[in-house]
Rad60/SUMO-like domain-containing protein
Amino acid sequence: MVNSVSKRCVAPKEKKVILKIRNQHDGGEDVYKMSVDVHLKKLMLAYCDKRNFNYKTARFIYKGNFLKPRQTPAKLMMEYGDVIYMHGHQISHCPVLTSKARFIPISSSFRFHA
């Protein structure tokens, strides 16, 4: 008799999994606990919001493969303590221009003048 259940899609026995996201730039590591059936997009958005990264430019890698937002830990057979690596650019905050600041045209280029 042939077993019709795919090993690839069998969910872990636990309903929750603890995952670590390690930033490749500074080596910082954050720990998240999530359900195995929740899309990884929720984890990615939470991490980017907490670390002030742009979600659109962030890339998450697990076991050498880029993660897709609609994947789940169960589908990827993730286990307790697995590490996801993140590559991306941090968003920098710039001061808001005040009313005193203005742009003065100089030849064909513009220069900031306060």
